[in-house]
Amino acid sequence: AGGSESHRTKGLLFKSICHKSRDIYKKKTNIKEDGKDSSFCTAHAALPIDNLAVKLNYELQSVAEDPRLIIKMAKNSPLVVQDDPELETIPDDQSFLQALAESVFKVRILPGNTGYVRFDRFVDAMLLQKMEVQMVRNVWEPIKGTDNLIIDLRFNTGGPSDSLSILLSYLHDVSSKLQLFTIYDRVQNTTTDYHTLPDILGPSYGSTRGVYVLTSYHTISAGEEFAYLIQSLHRGTIVGEITSGNLLHSKSFNVKNTDIVITLPVMNFIDNNDECWLGGGVVPDAIVLADEAEEQALEVIQFHQEIRSLVEEVGELLGMHYALPEIAVNVKKTLHTKWTDGFYRPVIDYESLASQLTADLQEISADHRLHVFYCDVEPESMLEVPKIPTADEASYIINTLFKADVLVGNIGYLRFDMMADIAVVKAIGSQLVQVWNKLVNTYALIIDLRYNIGAYSSALPLLCTYLFDPEPLTHLYTIFDHATNTTTRVMTLPEVLGQRYGPTKEIYILTSHMTGSAAEAFTRTMKDLKRATVIGEPTVGGSLSSGTYQIGNSILYASIPNQVVLSADNGQVWGVSGVEPHVVAQGTDALKVAKNIIAAKN
Q1: Most exposed residue of 223, 228, 377, 531, measured as fewest CB within 10 angstroms of its CB?
Q2: Is the pLDDT of residue 432 over 70?
Q3: Quick count: other Cβ atoms within 10 Å of Cβ 401?
Q4: Which residues fall in a coiled-coil region (predicted)?
Q5: 463 — phi, psi (to 5°)?
Q6: In the sheet where 411-416 sits, what is the strand order?
Q7: In angstroms, how far is the first alpha carbon of the chain from the final one?
Q8: Are residues 129 and 49 in the same domain?
Q9: How many helices (H) and strands (E) does the chain have?
């Protein structure tokens, strides 16, 4: 900001506010256009001044959309923190500066070799430079050997922003220059960039050890800016309460002859990502009561000791099991880089780690099937041998999973909401044939997979076999299994129980956004082989087969697709996106659309 366009925008803003204010006065006081009785005093008398301030503030916010612009009564105006004393009043006496440093900074070593620093005020950069020798002696030397550092800002009332770069320089490697933030001052019409300093007196804490900033509702101004920058620079973890949201980048002015105060931002605080911070409280990574923040920070430090090994273990699992090994190499490398660059510092527990890993895996690989979840008990594996049902259980499965009907016009309708394992299908084969016999002589067949989330894919060849001729066998698809490094051509079966539907009668498959896994594989196969018309919504885009693998000895598990499927039609690898229907329709309307298409053909 600061250019002519910015000034023009501000002018239009306040012109709009003036017009709105004029309309408010006219409505409340019946002011006439000829100007009679149009003095501010008349409006003031007709509209209580408190209500006017509230209304003006509302209109200002609705136009500006900037929370820093505030109109209040003087008694409700924002707290103004007193400026620091003039530097000339601060003597250069070393004993005095030592006493000042001891009073400003409180330092101790906590259990687990964790350093602790508390300071309740940011001072001017020139003053901080005056006492830098004492600061090094009192702060950086005592904590230089610690493994992690807690910086307590729960009672920090802010101060000048120019000292931020000095403090942040101690938390980065001095070998590289890093842009920290930029301040645009409208009054002076100046833009100032702040970077880490190339030379500091004391030992650098570096960029790899953990930094944990404690905040409270009372953390204000430069204290908030420090916490905000720790987050935006990925340098540390914020623990505590949301900060006050009162940046001291504004000036307050009295509206003449009233008790109304308007607060205007006169400076923009721009972070290292070129984002202008409009204020509002800094939201901690771990939100707890201020009194509990130190204890919570120590718990987060303990958890963070596991993160690196868990992130690396995810990369190793991908290398061993992921169906696309060339992508696995890139994902593993990128995960390590993100950890090194501090992107996992906001993670505070297993739940947030699982969420972050899932987001990173899917973003890097562009494969939404990859995901990480946490579970207190070992999850059931889809690779376990399924239980063979008894006769009573078989009847229950048939009645629960399958719905078969013959619609008007001799149209078969078959709905099933789960793909069973081949061993289970064979065990209930005789009952399934009875269901199938209702449909085998129909004119056309609608297969409803809108609510089928998939499961086992081992029965897909048997299901497909009923829809093709016995000779020659039909190539359905090819599977490459990364775990076993084997390639398998999946074909229709030479023999089945009961009568085949054959290759000529029309098949319509209904899909929705729920259709996934093995149900999706069946749909894609039938579409590839041009054996069915697909109607409905794009499918989930799931995997034919995914393995579930424990991440180290933790309660985290990774679901990793371990198979690549190649189309029998063109030999291309099936994509990770869902199957696009031939006829796109809302899932709820798919059956009606299918009936209309069949009726039109007749």
Answers
A1: 377
A2: yes
A3: 17
A4: none
A5: -60, -45
A6: 402-407, 411-416, 444-448, 506-511, 533-536, 583-584
A7: 68
A8: no
A9: 18, 25
Asked if 142 and 13 sit in the same domain, the reply is no
Query: At residue 393, does pLDDT exceed 80?
Result: no
The confidence band for 382, taking pLDDT boundaries of 50, 70 and 90, is very low
Supply φ then ψ for residue 289, to 5 degrees. -60, 145
- pLDDT per position as a tens digit, 225-272: 999 999 999 999 999 999 988 776 777 888 887 888 888 888 888 888
Task: Say how far apart CA 310 and CA 304 lie, in whole Å.
Answer: 10
For residue 297, report the phi and psi dihedrals to the nearest 5 degrees.
-60, -40
Written as one string, the DSSP assignment of 256-316 is TTSSEEEEEE-EEEEETTSPEE---PPPPSEE--GGGHHHHHHHHHHHHHHHHHHHHHHHH
Token pair, residue 106, equals 């409180």
For residues 428-446, average pLDDT: 89
588: DSSP letter: G
Domain with 236 in it: 87-287
Q: How far is it, in rounded angstroms, from Cα 246 to Cα 67?
A: 10
pLDDT tens, residue by residue, 439-456: 999 999 999 999 998 888
In a shared domain, residues 39 and 92: no
Stretch 423-446: mean pLDDT, rounded? 87
Structural element, H or E, at residue 263? strand 260-265
Q: Inform me whether the pLDDT recorded for 12 exceeds 90.
A: no
Same domain, 45 and 102: no
What region does 498 belong to: left with phi over 0, alpha with psi -120 to 50, or beta? left
Q: Whole-number mean pLDDT of the chain?
A: 84
Q: Which of 196-210, 330-344, 474-488 has the highest mean pLDDT?
A: 330-344
Name the helix (H) or strand (E) containing 338: helix 325-340
Q: Is the pLDDT of residue 82 over 50?
A: no
Residue 549 counted as domain residue: no
Q: What percent of the chain has pLDDT over 90?
A: 50
105 lies in the same domain as 49? no
At 570, the amino acid letter reads N
Give Rg (Cα) of the chain: 34
167: in domain: yes
Amino acid at the residue 467: L
Tally of domains in the chain: 3
Question: 41 and 158 share a domain?
Answer: no
Each residue's pLDDT tens digit, 38-53: 444 444 444 567 788 8
What are 564's strand-pairing partners? 480
Q: Is residue 349 part of a domain?
A: no
Domain termination residue (choose one: 287, 319, 345)? 287
Q: From CA 229, how far away is CA 245, in angstroms rounded?
A: 14
* 47 shares a domain with 152: no
Given the DSSP bridges, would you call strands 444-448 and 411-416 parallel, antiparallel or unpaired? parallel
pLDDT for 38 equals 45
